[in-house]
UniProtKB/TrEMBL annotation:
Domain C-methyltransferase: 246-403
SUPFAM superfamilies: S-adenosyl-L-methionine-dependent methyltransferases
Keyword Amino-acid biosynthesis: no
Keywords tagged on the record: Transferase
Protein species of origin: Amycolatopsis decaplanina DSM 44594
UniProt name for this protein: NDP-hexose C-3 methyl transferase
Gene Ontology molecular functions: transferase activity
The keyword Transferase belongs to this UniProt entry's keyword annotation: yes
Residue stretches making up the Methyltransferase putative zinc binding domain: 7-66
């Protein structure tokens, strides 16, 4: 029998289906000399037998992850800048056309989405607990509250600013285990015809692609239309639209409204049917996923070990949060991967969490191309491949591990 825990949505029994072992905080890059201070926890995932929500078995305290030195910068990708720019335009021409409209974003990070809203002169508020990135958003002219969104924050915003037409969160809601407080806050803050829109990695894509590196400390929930619908209904909300989006390895954008306020679109029933056909909520499906993950680990270590024996140079590309799961679960040490190239200044000069692979600036990759690049930022593959023709021209090859280990 697998290990169990209590569901953070409905208090049902959560059955574990994969154990990725002892893992560090995925975004806690280590200053050389501080290796002994790292925090570790057991990274494992299970499914709730009642509401079908897939979630972590152990929760990491939020202040350990989201703080003044949180290093993730949303604007590091041109594709993501375009993605959020288009969404802002869509909000501005649909939900934000009434008299003095108001949008609240949870986890606005460096302001990648709200910038266009602020520039259009529409009332906005970003709620962002990580101080360094919140300051970057504020510097773009965005109104930012340095805080965790939860019920009390929502009540306070409602008192000061009135109801919101849109509450939005990208790659943030799945980071928040205290969902009860969030959804109570959302129902208080939302205007009668307002919408709560959020987009996060989709369990359907994770299972189809075996993208197990989407599992890390910050990703607490792995949503489906079915589990989101159940979660909404428990809280006086209704799932009224879903949209599959191609970013970050496959996500779904969910739209919730107050129960009865809007007619659900046909896309909701279609996605629910697709999930049922794929047996996404069945334990056996997730056990098969776990088996596929172990094969990726074995294949990747075999390949890296063979390349080391041949004297080839392998460098990691993108010190993503996801790469912490891959390197620590597979046991990828600095003798297998020489360094990881990353464009984020606050990650450079540090060591990767857990395995302590040096993170170096991009120039070191470009100036002395390795034989192989291990693509940790595979979710930005198109953008990166376009930019790295010179690496390929120099004879360089890419190692990918999603959906399986392959060299191209
Ligand atoms: N929305 C951006 C994007 O999609 O690129 C940023 C995503 S980042 C992975 C997650 C963000 O959520 C972080 O900036 C973190 O500080 C923020 N966050 C975590 N818990 C939060 C909470 N309770 N309320 C608001 N933001 C939160
Ligand atoms: P993400 O997958 O969570 O968006 O993180 C992507 C990481 O990869 C981030 O640390 C920035 C880095 N990166 C590069 O180094 N070069 C690139 O071209 C891109 C798109 C990202
Ligand atoms: Zn549940």
């Amino acid at each position: 029998m697998s290990a169990t825990s209590r569901c953070r949505i409905c208090d049902g029994t959560v059955h574990e289906f994969i154990d990725l072992g002892r893992q560090p905080l995925s975004d806690a890059f280590v200053v050389p000399g501080d290796e002994k201070k790292e925090f570790f926890f057991r990274l494992a995932t299970g499914i709730c037998e009642s509401c079908t929500m897939v979630q972590l078995m152990e929760e990491v305290p939020r202040d350990l992850m989201f703080h003044e030195a949180y290093p993730y910068l949303s604007s590091g990708s041109a594709v993501m800048r375009a993605h959020f720019g288009e969404l802002a335009k869509r909000f501005l021409t649909t939900e934000l056309t009434g008299e003095d409209p108001f949008i609240v974003e949870l986890g606005c990070n460096d302001g990648i989405m709200l910038k266009a809203v602020a520039d259009a002169g529409v009332r906005q508020l970003g709620v962002e607990p990580s101080g360094s990135v919140a300051d970057l958003a504020a510097a773009k002219g965005i109104r930012v509250r340095k805080d965790f969104f939860e019920e009390a924050t929502a009540a306070d915003i409602r008192k000061n600013d009135g109801p919101a037409d849109v509450i939005y969160a990208a790659n943030t809601l799945c980071h928040i285990p205290y969902m009860d407080s969030i959804l109570k806050g959302v129902t208080q803050l939302l205007g009668p015809n307002g919408v709560f829109v959020f987009e996060d990695p989709y369990l359907g894509d994770i299972v189809e692609r075996t993208s197990f590196d989407q599992i890390y400390d910050e990703h607490f929930f792995f949503f489906t239309a079915r589990s989101v619908q159940a979660m909404a209904e428990r809280n006086g909300l209704e799932l009224v639209d879903v949209e599959r989006i191609p970013v970050h390895g496959g996500e779904v954008r969910y739209t919730l409204a107050l129960a009865g306020a809007r007619q659900p679109s046909a896309a909701v029933a279609e996605l629910l049917a697709w999930e049922a056909e794929r047996k996404l909520a069945e334990y056996a499906t997730l056990e098969r996923f776990a088996t596929n993950v172990k094969k990726i680990r074995d294949d990747l270590i075999a390949l890296l070990t063979k390349l080391r024996a041949e004297g080839k140079r392998v460098v990691g590309y993108g010190a993503t949060a996801k790469s912490a799961t891959v390197t620590n679960f597979c046991g990828i040490t600095p003798d297998l991967v020489e360094f990881i190239s990353d464009t984020t200044p606050s990650k450079q000069g540090k060591l990767s969490p857990g395995q302590h692979i040096p993170v170096r600036e991009y120039r070191e990759f470009a100036d002395d191309h390795p034989d192989y690049a291990l693509l940790f930022a595979w979710n930005h593959a198109d953008e990166i491949m376009n930019a790295e023709q010179a690496f390929r021209d120099s004879g360089g090859q890419w190692i990918r591990y999603v959906p399986n280990v392959h060299v191209s």
